[in-house]
Amino acid sequence: MKRELVIVMDFGGQYNQLIARRVRECNVYCEIYSYKIDIEKIKEMNPKGIILTGGPSSCYEEDSATYSKELFELGIPVLGLCYGAQLMQHLLGGKVERASVREYGKSELTVDNSSVIFSNVKTKSTCWMSHFDYISQAAPGFTITATTPDCPVAACENKEKDLYAIQFHPEVLHTEEGTKMLSNFVLNVCHCAGDWRMDSFVEEQIKAIREKVGDGKVLCALSGGVDSSVAAVLLSKAIGNQLTCVFVDHGLLRKNEGDEVEAVFGPNGNYELNFIRVNAQQRYYDKLKGVTEPENKRKIIGEEFIRVFEEEAKKIGAVDFLVQGTIYPDVVESGLGGESAVIKSHHNVGGLPDHVDFREIIEPLRDLFKDEVRKVGLELGIPEYLVFRQPFPGPGLGIRIIGEVTEEKVRIVQDADAIYREEIAKAGLDRTIGQYFAALTNMRSVGVMGDERTYDYAVALRAVNTIDFMTAEAAQIPYDVLNKVMSRIINEVRGVNRVFYDITSKPPGTIEFE
Length: 514
Ligand code: XMP
Fold this sequence. Notes:
Layout: E1 6-10, H1 16-25, E2 30-34, H2 39-45, E3 49-52, E4 78-81, H3 83-91, E5 95-111, E6 124-137, E7 143-148, E8 151-158, E9 163-166, H4 178-189, H5 198-213, E10 218-222, H6 226-239, E11 243-249, H7 257-265, E12 274-279, H8 281-288, H9 294-316, E13 321-323, H10 328-333, E14 360-362, H11 370-379, H12 384-387, H13 407-426, E15 435-449, E16 452-465, E17 473-474, H14 479-492, E18 496-501
Parallel strand pairs: 1-2, 1-3, 3-4, 4-9, 10-11, 10-13, 11-12, 13-14, 16-18
Antiparallel strand pairs: 5-6, 5-7, 7-8, 8-9, 15-16, 16-17
C-alpha cells in the first residue's frame, strides 16, 4: 500500500523537524527534504502537498536559498512558512523588504475565517513571529488573509492555485491556533485522508519484515533503551526465534537496569526471541582504569561495545540481517534528510561493527519520530516504564562520572540516581521533566555526619526541559522535593556528603555531565 505523503522542503530553518512532527500529529505522513531536491524527484513522489520551511536567507539576495517557479505550477498545494512564504511571494511577483527591526516573539494575529487555512480558527489569537524581512506586497492573484500590527501580509493565498503563504510559525506551540492551521492545510486543502496511525504502521511493518527476512537470521544489539526495545519487539512479533538479541551489560547502566532488561526480554520474559546477556562489566572497568578525559572515555566505551558485540556475533556465525534502532531525527540530523544538518556522530554507540558477517541492515523505525516510536511501543504491548524511559546515553554512567570511572563511583551514582528518580516520580514530575539524572562530580570535601568528620563526594542533580535536546533549560523543581532527595542521598548513599542542583542551561552547558 502506498502511503500518502506531504513533503517538507527544508530551507535551513530551526523548526523543520517540528513542522514534520506537527503534520504527523494530524495523522498525515510527511518527510523532510533539502530545498536542493530535484523537481523530477518531487514529481515522482507525487506528494499530496508541499510545505516550505523558514530559513536564514533573504530571498532578494544573490545566492539565497531558492527554487524553480515550476514548483508552483505542478498542481500540488504549497504552503510557505516564514522564509518559505517570502520566497513564494518573491518568486511570484510580490514584494519582500527588510523591516527596520527584527520582529521576534508573540504577536496579535487577525485572520479572515473565510480562508480554508483559517476555518474554525479564532479571529483574533496569538502567533509566533521570527523574521527580519517581511512581505510588503502580496503577489498578483493573492488575497491577504491575515494581518498583525507589524505585518500587512501575515498570510495570503491564491485559492485557485492552492498556494498559501504564512509569515509566522504555526508549528510553534506559542502560535495558539497553529495546529489547526496546519491541519486545515493537510486535511482540507491537500485532502489527505489522515490515516497515518501507529496500529496500521505496526501491521504494515510486520508484514514487510516477514517478506524481507523470509527464513533468514537476524541479529539485534539491544540496549534496553526505547528505540532498540521497540525495534526488537517489532522483529520478534514478525519472525520470533529467527531473531537473536545481544544485550551488553557494560556496568554503566542505571541501578538494576540490566536485570530489568533481562526480565522483559530474557528466557522468562514476554517475547519469543533468543536473548544473550553479556556481562562485560569488569572488562569495561579495566579498560577505563585511570582514564579521565571525557572524549577518551566515550571512545573506549564505544569501541569496547563493538568488540564485545563482534565476539558474540562470531559465536552465532553468519546472519542475514542486522537491526538498527535508527529513528527519523537520526536520519535528518546526519544530513540525509533536511538542510539543517547537525552531525551527531557521538550519539551512536560506536558506529557499525566491521567484523560481523551480515548481508543487510534493517531499520524498522527509520521513518518515525520519538513520540511515534513510543506509540508503537504501547501498540506492541511493551511495559509503560520501558516505553516512557527517559533518554539514556549509549556510554551510560561513563559520561555522568567526572574523572576516572571506578566500580565504587558507579555504585554511588547508581544509588543516588535511583533515589532521585524515585522521588521525582513520587512528586508526579516524571512525565513533565524532559530529562533528569544524578551525576557524580569529582569533588570531595569535608563534612560532618553525627560526631564524625567526613571527606566525601558531591553528587550533582540535573533536570532539564527541552524540546529538541539541542537547547535546554534547568527545570524548576520544587524546593521541598530537592530537599528530600538531598537528605535521602546523604543518609542512604555511602560516600556522599554534599548534593548540588545544577541550574545551568544549554548552551552554555550540555545536558550530560561529563
Ligand atoms: P548533551 O549532553 O550533548 O546531550 O547536551 C543531548 C542529548 O543527547 C544525549 N546524549 C547521548 N545519547 N549517546 C547517546 O545515545 C551519546 O553518546 C550521547 N551523548 C549525549 C543526552 O542524554 C541528551 O539527551
